[in-house]
Amino acid sequence: MDKGVAVVVAAVVGGIVVTQGPLNSQLGRTAGGLHASVIALGVSFLAIAMLAAITDGFGGLRRIGDAPWHVVIGGGLAGALYVGSIVWTVRALGVGGLTAVTIAGQLGVAIVIDHFGWLGVERSPITVAKIAGVVLLAVGTWLVIRD
Where are the domains of the chain? Predict the structure, then answer.
């Protein structure tokens, strides 16, 4: 995918994802926090399963045993942890605060993963510019959540 297209797609999806916290929190008030997460992840599963079925079927599932166990379960557990936590954290931080803190945490861990080339990504060393970006993001995060 072209880098410019990827930026647009990521920005649009990011704008949509930011609605997840308040929507799941509102559902949590009705169904309960963990139940709201089960419902949300169930809907996610059905949506992505239908998309897979429509596009290229489920043949890739036969190769699941070829992947290391941490790869098979890691992404799903990370997603469940996020979805499970936003039901409550959005109430304390607000949508802007939750988004700022989440992005700050993601960027901090991401540059370490990139630096060491963990999880199969190409190595990209930590630079002064990247550290400056993390510091600026941390200051921005503090400004968003300080009140």
Answer: 3-145
